[in-house]
């Protein structure tokens, strides 16, 4: 059992974790609960920001569904379970895993795996070598990597923008949508198994990475 | 690009530190060869010369990256956004991946001859490592120094960032222009 803190409806959670496992669970509740209980929450900006710092041990925070969350991490994994509002995560070497966001998402890492199940808003994911997996995006989806593999699924309601140096990119689009595909590459190849049209745009650029666009 | 090209700001104690980095330059060189790499760097140098003018100076070249100094943080952020716009144009025209990320931080670095060193330089170097291709990331300290009305720049919060070797989290923002550059 952790320590509970009352929050405002518009409170944004900020977490800083140098290392260790960070687990945030969004669930039906109106407070936040921090475990281990000795980890202090600092409130700033009239309670609009709740800040928790963790140096090395594991940290679990339970938050209301739909809460906006920002996480800064160096190493160690970040797991965001449930449905959040907007999500911003930066991690150097650890992996990041997000279930769902109804707002915009910005995740950036260097070497860890970055994974998102679904985003209703805009989704930007950037990595150097980590694999990027984006399950479903309702609006603009942007992914950039040097060598990591990118798997992205879109609803076909927003554009898709992907940049890769050498990583393989796979974009899955709904059967009933026809994307306009713009592809620029020095040595990479494009394979598009979809009928092309004007429903939305897929913009992909690579140096040597290949891009594959297939029906979901 | 010569590191001692200009002495602008040599006496300033506070200002903006700007790092640039070409994304995937090592992979590009391995794939396309040294001549192509030199061509890419030459384009970058030409664009930087064109944009910097007397507002800033190149402190030194770091392989495929640059360390630059601006007395005026507003001019630094504006120059960074203009550089990105020009890099994108050149990428398209030359069909080369001049994908550059840029980090900007305001601080008070120590001077060592023409070079800059110190904590604020380290912070700026960490910021650029988090930027995506084509992106300008700016520290909160720098955003406080930028006159939004004068520079036609908006800042979107990216979040608190922990950086290796930097004890406290740094709040980072993405700079976007509100006007056509």
- The number of helices of chain B is 6
What would CATH call the homologous superfamily of chain B? Nucleotide cyclase, GGDEF domain
**Rg of chain B from C-alpha positions?**
15 Å
Radius of gyration of chain A: 18 Å
Query: Might you state the CATH topology name of chain B?
Result: Alpha-Beta Plaits
In total, how many beta strands of chain A?
23
Count up the domains of chain A. 2
Strand order of the largest sheet of chain A: 1-4-7-3-9-11-13-15-17-19-23-21
N→C terminal distance of chain B: 24 Å
Low-confidence stretches of chain B: 1-10
CATH architecture label name of chain B = 2-Layer Sandwich
Strand portion of chain B: 25-35%
As residue ranges, the low-confidence spans of chain A are none
Beta-strand percent range of chain A = over 45%
3D shape of chain B: globular
Question: Which structural class do the helices and strands of chain B define?
Answer: alpha+beta
**Overall mean pLDDT of chain B:** 87
Major beta sheet summary of chain B: 7 strands, mixed
Helix coverage percent of chain A: under 10%
Major beta-sheet overview of chain A: 12 strands, mixed
